[in-house]
Amino acid sequence: MAIGDQNDIAGRLKALLPQGWFPDNAPTLNAVLQGLGNGLAFGYALVQFALTQVVMVTATDIWLDLHAFDYLGTSLLRRLQESDASFLARAQAGLFPQANTRQAIISRLEALTGTDPVVFEPQYPQDTGAYGYGGLGYGVEGGYGSLALPYQAFVTVYRPLGQGVPLLAGYSGNDLSPVYAPLGYGAGLGSYVDLAQAFDGVTDNDIYQTVAEIEPAGSIIWTRITS
Prior knowledge:
Number of strands: 3
Largest sheet: 3 strands, mixed
Strand content: 5-15%
């Protein structure tokens, strides 16, 4: 018996009755009290549920979406098949976002994709290297610095490594599947697929939008997305 459930409330109601009015074994009375307890237990559970939904950190499902919309509008929407925990973490980060710095670009994109982006600033010697400074080497991959590109950076962002279902054939697999394996239970590569397996939820548009939110005014962030 838990606090607020049907038996708990029925017992509390019975304890309020005057002693001696009813025998200990009173099936009719118990049935009435259990009926009242059922309705009141539903009300108690509803109140407890409402209390968890009025605070963003404990809200779930559509109620969490409403909190995020109240604070952030349409700039932060739940992705396809995104869990409450993941969406809450993004919403909390959106309330106090890092922005306007090189580290903000790296941190926000790493949080979004799970992989650190590559940031190259043509006017930053630590990226380009310099004679007498270090960081240079013939035959070593790198980039030329340029004073003609002020307040600009080149950012390479890697798409998330989604699990996906690359080895599962579909119906009529020989025609539609790049794996060219016929579907069949116990044979081949046929299987039902959960949506959470097929979609990682982060789109290229999400990446571009994040970069646009981070970049300082008056700067240009050239963005390349790759897998």
